[in-house]
Amino acid sequence: MIDNKMRTPVADAIEWALLQGLSFKVTQDTAAHTAFSFTPASIDKGRFEQLKSSTPLLGRLIHAVSEEPLFLQEAISPVASGDAFFDALLKMQTQLYSKGTKPKRLPLLIMRSDFMDDAESGPKLIEFNGIAAGMGPFGQKISQLHSYLNNQWPKAYSTWSAAENGESIDNPAIERLSKGIAQATMQIKREFNDEGPATFLMIIQSNEDNVFDQHMLEQALQSLGIRTIRRTFRELHGQLTSAPGERLILDGVGSIDTVYLRAGYEYCDYAAKDILGLVCCEALMQTRVFIEQHRVAVNATVSQQLATSKRVQMLLTAMDPEALTQFGLKLNEAKTVKQLMGEMLAVDKDSAVWLAARSSEDWVLKNQGEGGGHCIFDKDIVPKLRNLQPHEYQAWSLMRRLHPRPRTTPALLVRKGEVTVVNDLISEIGIFTLHIQGLPVSEEAGYCGYLIRSKSAGTTEGGVHTGMGVLDSLVYTT
């Protein structure tokens, strides 16, 4: 039971969250607060500093991989036969690099690398997020909420704190992400030396509810003098044209300097049943190709999306440090990257028999999907492996399951206005990095803040948006 003395602090926290936009849209005119922890998680300072300093190397690595079309072709081709969406992505990639040409776009790599701090082996990579790598602003806001609660309600805060008087870890996600995007935007603007405002285009999903996180980033860009525009792929269809120098023009708006995709990671983002004459999704996928054929900063490019796939992650994980140096890393940097990567295995005809003789609880089965709902756990893995057809094998991989230490004290979670106590809360750590044409942006080698999502150790779906996770922040272990 929650002490009655907690009701007022919790109510204040909910109102603060709503006031600051820490919310999801519910209907056209209503919103609900995101699920959040009342106090932050704790982490050893050395482990967090290791992540801050080493994760930007992953950004450099992924940029280099994304600029190797032959490597990506060979990596993704085996997946395409078992995954129609990746088949479509590969066709877009092939079109962009046809006849030896190179897309005109300026690669802007905003990446969130997600880790779990395994109790035995330390922080290990779960996945790369190179398209729609959002919720950085939410990560900063929940950190601010925890600081507010510590100051405003110190007794309630200390009651539920995982590390009493632990030093809060600053989260500059909004400032650094917007600064990096602004730098890329102004670079394109200067190249054309044209009049009018620098313009940022965010491609969004229709009727989505995760809009406030997006608007926080847009507001930060607006404060830097950049005009922001929001459109779906459907709204862009037939509205984009070319100007001299492969300048991208949006009808009714003018020239576009940066395109940021918060959509495009699943087939439904390209669906348009009202467009006649083309097969489903082809028209809007061609809109994406058209954008990349112009001189505009783009995140995520098709190449970046492929380079951050589970398939490429598995291939990179299997390489030794010497092999990783082919992507521009020095040997000592490649060794650092190798330490971050967990164990991944390709799926084949023998995988079901192999895993049936072992503990399936030690592994997770993943396909190529982005977001929640694409992982299979425990007793469901072997039956799924047995039902896969040979052409589907390469679209799946096995990843060694990670086991972070739960909080040592119970945690208070707030969801839909109600509070619950969880005794085994574990956290997933997302580290944001930003690179323009492979070069880091920020004073810390490309580090741009963090996102913490926490959940019960017994819950498999930990997303804040679609799963049972909550927003969280970090303090150093005392």
Automatic annotation (TrEMBL):
- A Pfam family reported for this protein in Swiss-Prot or TrEMBL: GSH_synthase
Query: Which residues belong to any copy of the Glutathione synthase substrate-binding domain?
Result: 199-307
Query: Could you tell me which InterPro entries the record lists for this protein?
Result: Glutathione_synthase, Glutathione_synthase_a-hlx, Glutathione_synthase_C_euk, Glutathione_synthase_N_euk, GSH-S_sub-bd_sf, GSH_synth_subst-bd, PreATP-grasp_dom_sf
Q: Cofactors per UniProt?
A: Mg(2+)
Q: Which domain of life is it from?
A: Bacteria
The top EC class, named as a word, is ligase
What GO molecular-function term can you cite, just one?
metal ion binding
Q: What EC number(s) is this enzyme filed under?
A: 6.3.2.3
Pathway participation: Sulfur metabolism; glutathione biosynthesis; glutathione from L-cysteine and L-glutamate: step 2/2
| Annotated keywords | ATP-binding, Glutathione biosynthesis, Ligase, Magnesium, Metal-binding, Nucleotide-binding
Entry keyword Glycosyltransferase: no
Task: Cite the Gene3D superfamilies for this sequence.
Answer: 3.30.1490.50, 3.30.1490.80, ATP-grasp fold, B domain (3.30.470.20), Glutathione synthase, substrate-binding domain superfamily, eukaryotic (3.40.50.1760), Glutathione Synthetase, Chain A, domain 3 (1.10.1080.10)
Gene Ontology CC terms, in alphabetical order = cytosol
Task: Cite the PANTHER family for this sequence.
Answer: GLUTATHIONE SYNTHETASE
Which family does the entry's similarity section mention? Belongs to the eukaryotic GSH synthase family.
What is this protein's name? glutathione synthase
Q: Which organism is it from?
A: Shewanella violacea (strain JCM 10179 / CIP 106290 / LMG 19151 / DSS12)
